[in-house]
Design goal:
Rossmann fold, 6 helices, about 25% helix, alpha/beta, seven-stranded mixed β-sheet, binds S-adenosylmethionine
């Protein structure tokens, strides 16, 4: 049976194995929620994308004129980010690192994006704290991820409930940001071969005051 979450040795081997193929397993088009909410980023923003994967969201943002840095653990993801960017005629800077080994610099980013970047609870809490500190005043955080209600749908995402986003917990972890949009919704998430239908997600747009 295919595993659905990384081992404790870190995220990179699991995700490298998943991405080390020709096709883009989450597709090459940006996530719908990010497309809707991207106007909150303004124009020509410095944007950090956490767990960027194979590049679809970073390339979308770069095509809007943003200066995008894609943080991704997996080597195959980094390769595909650059390949997709080249195909679409844009440049995306990449950082190949595990979030556990990286510290988001304080006050550095006008935008931070996290799309289906599911982390173990202690690391997630740490990273979301760094997101709050890492945004400039007026900067915006955009996140979408599966909630524990997704386990009943079976259309994608981790099967380990600890990796899923419980809204009350995330709200507390984003203390310090103003929540412009914070909603648990059920919507179709159909992205590549691994996000395949009706899904329970948490959507967040938050502003650093
Ligand atoms: C479900 S994929 C989503 C990829 C991309 N955001 C998208 O929506 O297409 C999760 C991504 O998070 C990355 N990731 C998970 N844990 C990570 C960690 N600890 N450090 C860095 N990246 C991580 C994985 O490598 C993978 O690319």
């Amino acid at each position: 049976m295919e595993k659905d979450s990384p081992e404790s040795s870190g995220a990179a081997p699991f995700w490298h194995a998943r991405f080390d193929r020709e096709d883009y397993v989450y597709g090459t088009e940006a996530n719908d929620f990010l497309r809707e909410q991207a106007p909150h980023l303004g124009s020509a923003a410095t944007v950090l994308s956490l767990g960027e994967g194979e590049g679809r969201n970073a390339v979308f943002l770069a095509r809007l004129g943003h200066r995008v840095t894609a943080l991704e653990a997996a080597q195959a993801g980094i390769r595909k980010i650059h390949a997709l960017a080249a195909r679409r005629g844009v440049t995306v800077a990449t950082l190949q690192t595990d979030l556990a080994d990286y510290r988001i610099a304080a006050g550095q980013w006008q935008g931070i994006v996290s799309i289906f970047c599911h982390l173990p609870p202690a690391l997630r809490r740490e990273v979301l704290g760094q997101v709050v500190a890492g945004l400039e005043c007026g900067g915006v955080f955009i996140m979408e991820g599966y909630t524990p209600r997704q386990l009943a749908h079976g259309t994608g995402g981790p099967k380990d409930g600890a990796l899923l986003l419980e809204p009350a917990t995330i709200r507390a972890e984003l203390d310090g940001l103003d929540l412009l949009h914070f909603a648990e919704v059920t919507r179709p998430v159909i992205e590549g071969s691994l996000h395949t239908g009706t899904a329970a997600v948490l959507q967040v747009v938050a502003l650093k005051p």
